[in-house]
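TEACHING EXERCISE
Course module: macromolecular assemblies
Task: Read the component lines below, then compare them to the predicted structure of the full complex.
Student: A.B.
Group: 4
Components provided:
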Amino acid sequence: MRLISLCLLSLSFLSSDHPEKEDFVVAMENGGDFKVFAIKDSDGLIDNYRANIAAAVCEDRICYDVNLIFSWNLIGEFIDFEVLSREPLTKLDHVPFSPKDYQKLHSILRNQDLSFVRIPAEELVVKPEEPKLDGYSGATKETVKKEVIEGALYTCYTLWHIANGLVVDSIKSHTAATLKNKAMVTKIIHQKSQTHHYFLINHLSQKGYNENIVALLSLMSESKGYFSKNAFEKIPESLFESKLVQDYVIADYAELDYYTQKAILNKLEKVKHGPELSQFLLKQISLENTFQNQKLIALVLRHKERETFLKLVASLKINSIPISHENLKEIQKINKAYQINISELAKF
Amino acid sequence: MRKLLLFLVFCQVFANAQKQSTIFIETESFENKGGWVVDQQFMDVMGSSFLMAHGMGIPVEDASTRISFQKKGTYHIYVRTRNWSSQWSDAEGAGQFQLALDGKILAKVYGKDQANWAWTDGGEVEISKKEVTLSLKDLTGFNGRCDAIIFTTDPSFKPIEDTKKLSEFRNDYFGFDEHPRDAGEFDFVIIGGGMAGTCAAISAARNGVKVALIQNRPLLGGNNSSEVRVHLGGRINLEPYPALGNLVNEIGPDEGGNAQPKSYYEDDKKLDAVLNEPNISLFLNHHANKVETENGTIKKVYATNIETGEKINFIAPLFADCTGDGTIGRLAGAEYMTGRESKSVYNEPTAPEVGDKLTMGASVQWFSEKKETAVTFPEIKWGMDWNEAKSEEITKGDWEWETGMGLDMTLDFEQIRDYGMLAVYSNWSYLKNKSLNKAKFANESLRWVAYIAGKRESNRLKGDYVLIEQDLTERRVYPDGTAPTSWTIDLHYPDPENSKLFPGAAFKSIAKHIKIYPYPIPFRCLYSKNISNLMMAGRDISVSHVALGTVRLMRTCGMMGEVLGMAASVCKKENINPRGLYQRHFDQLEALMAVGVGNQDIPNTQDYNKGGTLMEIKN
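Instructor-supplied answer key:
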């Protein structure tokens, strides 16, 4: 049933729905190419990519053509394939793929953690010392065997490289070019996959960050893992000078994980920050925060006003917070203007 | 006082024996080892490394050495050996051998008497020449073993059975304890040359630290060496320090697979990487077995050459225990943990209600190869009872050929390893001789069986923090995060099916997995709580039994090593211990971890055996 319906879908994809020119063409590693079409949603935004794949596959000296439709998501991750019912895939000795084989092929094509795809094609089998008369060309390596469909080693290998080869970068480039469109950025932000979000922060232009900063900050607050750390590292420094971002830091800093906090402090070292943020950073200096204290002290010291300086020194004294050699030198330098007693400050 | 008296008595006995002419020969020092292998795995328990005939059913080539007698005459022979299979079978011993003098085989057959290491009386022999070639002649190919041989003309001579006293005698006889050689002064001494220790050494050396690396085998790589053949596992180049793992990639084998041919494990790649570092002094074949401490600080570590018995000592301000067993930590008096903690200790969901000594086991992997013609294998009498139901019709034993859970991974390890081999031989003998499907195996030849067993767990040294299950599952990330652990919490248990067939003596295991997000291991897990200058990397770090399930993977251990090397450089620069680094200079370690220490310009070949994860991949 699946094959028949797929056949109809495939024919419609190949003919009536897409009479227009393809969006780009991708070369295959072993020669030939295929046309990739960007499929759009009802708002006219790209939704996924599709291509008709026609390639020759050889299993133990017997070659045949495969004809499939592949689809990828916005960031080049392989999603699915469709088979024409008149051209089912076959294994060695023309044994057709079983439903289980198709399922396994699907999981293979979506898997980035396979060993066999990294091995050159000519090394997939252990070659016998001398060629045998019966045409036996070697045994599949043990490690490879576990990962592939028995009797369809080269089909798996060839199709994986098509699905996960040059096409991936082409799709990424194509989608990246659409990020000028704010609606497209919003669409990607709303995707539930963090890989899409990483794609976004890796491909947004400075202008793109400026236009979408509110949505991006909101995304960071909700994100898991190291996304917010990476996103803060990507945000242009100029944006860190904005009140919007500095207010966000004041409001959300305490909720962020250590590595994101560190990324923020690293960025703040390179930009100017206002007195409100300075006061906020001063409050973060504590005995429990030994790893960040020196960075925080250095940032606060950049505001050399008497009031801030006195508050800082008082806080360091009361809490007996040790001070690094570099920060102590800076305190002594600033104190030349104020001449307060700093002899009780604790040193490393 | 009593010890001193005993010592004087022994001195007298052996002084007399010397007059009467007594010769003590360590087999591991034989000039020509033939097909026999040096086994040092149990020397802390039975007193010495020894020679073993690991022929997998085919008698190995003779080992031989020249010995000099002061005088001709009648000598009594004693041979320190054991019948290793007798703990499981009353049949004649598996590993039998004889001695030969100048090619003349002596009548006594060894390896079929007592179960434990002891001196077997070899009777008398007439020595008519002062220079003689002594040979060990293997009879069975099934792991006959010989520690030492004594020739004496003294009729009152009785060889020492007590292991400790025997060690004292050996040291006295060869003069090893009198003048242990000073290996030199180092900034950092690393004990253990597995992935953790090797990476620690290279990382430290590249950061300007003068390193001694001590390894008790002739190869580096530990469980990933061609002696054990476990492939690397886990992921590298992860947040929060993506540069960690570049060194693992640089020295790690390009190809994965357990129990594969030797070339898969690229021993030379690891060795060359170490030899290329001018800051590393490498001490292969040295087993560290003595530590001197002062006020909770290690001052000296002593190591014994596993072939010559010579002792050397190492002085440094900083040491790393990468032994896997926590050997150095234990000798230094470090707090440590063994077995499974009960739920009440850390409130871990996976921990048992009642704690116990159960550890994960050690693997004895193996494989066969197909030959052009039929190959025989002995029908062994000393094997385990076998039948069709027990028969495993396979040609490769992977990680799950795992034994020793519930036994002591240091004290009982010879028994654990031997039981693993016994299971392999029992199954193979049945397949080749009795199985209903024996025709299928007619051309199969047992190509490789590990005699260095691959340990997963033994002792864990306690640090300032003990990593637990909830840290991993709830992602409680601490600011002192370092190397990321990414493998599942992968805990092994005796295989229930195998346990039914072999009650209380399973030799196969199952794994239970809990996926996690990659998690940076706190630096406080990488140094000892109470030994101020001891760090650790590998499976003996400060984690609960449950958390060990994930951190024990070798790519992760390698990255811990990278961190240790960097930490050593900060300790050297600031003249502090690891806790001081954590308290005051962690930012320097962060900066080094951000840069990494491995070559980042080479392709990433570590694509195999990365393991399941909850992480989404960056795009």
